[in-house]
Structure formats: C-alpha cells, structure tokens
C-alpha cells in the first residue's frame, strides 16, 4: 500500500470511528421514524412515535439514554472500515484519474462526482449493507410493536445467520448501494466545490492555496452532507424497510416502494428526514474536517503528501 493510500485510509478510519459516537442517536431516531409504515406488520397505529422528539423522549423514558444507542455497536465496529473504504477508494480513484488526465478532460467537479459515486458503491457493498442490516433489525426490535427478540449484537448476528445465512446480511443491498453511490457522489462533488470556493485560487506563481481551517472543512462537509440527505431520503427509507424485521415480505426495492406508497402515500418516503439531515450534517462535517486534519497530521508524521488541494 502506498503512503498516500495508507494515509487516506487511516484518516478515514479515525474520522469514521470518532463521528459515529456523536451522531448515532440521530440515526436511531431517523430509523425508528422510517420504519413506522402502515405497510409494515409491526405498525403500531395510535401507539406509534408521533414525532422525532416523541421518539427520543419515549426511548429515554423506557430504556434510558443508552436506549438511543440500540444498534450503535454495529455502527461503531463498521464506522472505521466504512470511512476507510470510502476515503481510500476515492483517493485511489482520484490519483488514477489525475494520472490519466481525466480531470483535465472532464473537469474536476465531474471527476469528483464519478469517483465519489464509485467510492460510495464500494462502501455500501463491503461495509454499510451488513452493518445496517444488523443495526436496523435491532432498532426495529425496539419499536413500539417490536418483538424484543434480540438480546444484543451477537445474538442478533447469530439469529440472522441461523434464519438466512450470509444472504441475510445483504437484505436491501440494491437500494443500499444506490443510496451510497448517490450520497457520496453528491458529498464529494459538493465538498470539493465548496472547498475550492473557500480556499480561493492558487497563487500567481502556482503556489497551492492554504488548507482549509477545521471549521471551514466542517461547514463545507456539513452542507454537502445535508444536501445529499434530502436528495436520497426516499431511497434510504426503502432501504430501511427492506432491512427491517419484516423486510423479507418485499420482493424487490420497487415492490417495497409501491407497498409503502400504497399504504401511506408519497409523504412516507420522507419519514425521518429531519433527524437524518441533522445527523448527516454533523457526520459528514466531522468526517471531512477530521479527515483533512488527521490526513495532514499523518502526512507530517510519515513525510507523505497524500492531500491534494
């Protein structure tokens, strides 16, 4: 592994691990709201969560603050690898596309979009699908009509294995990969554009612009993340329901979408968008700012120059 790739991968790993400990309660609330579908066998009717705030309050009242971290251990385990795959793949593809003159032929924004799309597919296929299958089933298990069948992470993993084998960890892989590719394409494109805007042009003598301040990287990443969350929310809702406890009843992503809309209307595809925007703004802002900071620190420590401005 090259110094550049090693630095990018390590930076992404550290960034992903740190941010998930802060943002997971938003993910928990968002997922609970998405799973409250009239098409679901576990729909709670009048006992359902009435809003994200009601969901948070009811969970804390019943299970304490740690209840908001139900399923979070899976995210903590996969948080580092998924960010490492995302940033490592993006940096590898960016370096390859620069060598082949793709940035000159297509322009940097287009190259960033293509590379981000591919990085998102790799992240979703290798890390996010099994991670979210486990986490979403554990969260669904704790919904108002949930069966309360999982004793913990290991028990949930074992139950999925016994019931469906390896394929069980890849329920909903289609919408997961589609969403991952789309969100990362938007995030890397948006972050790149905002970063170049914040940095300004290179010096007259070709000197590259200074690196972003931490707050600038966080803001640029957060804005790009929030836009991606709104744009892909319908796909994320379909993915969540295909990964839920009763997700096996849906034959495909199209069947799931049709069933959700038939039972609750188009609006249900946007369930949970508020907490998702909040989480993703913080998540992506932290990831990009930590990635930039950790990457520069690793470059100084190991003498590589993996960051490009």
Mean of all residue-level pLDDT scores: 88
* CA-based shape: elongated
User: What is the helix fraction of residues, given as a range?
Assistant: over 70%
The share of residues in extended strands comes to under 5%
Spatial separation of the terminal alpha carbons? 22 Å
What about the largest sheet? none
Oligomeric state, counting identical vs distinct chains: single chain
Given helix and strand content, the structural type is: mainly alpha
Number of strands: 0
Give an overview in words.
With 309 residues, this protein is an all-alpha fold. Helices cover 72% and strands 0% of the residues. It has 10 helices and no strands. Helix 5 crosses helix 6, helix 5 (108-141) packs across helix 7 and helix 8 (214-243) packs across helix 9. It is elongated and about 65 Å long. The chain starts with a helix and ends in a 7-residue tail after the last helix. The model is unreliable at 305-309 (pLDDT under 50).
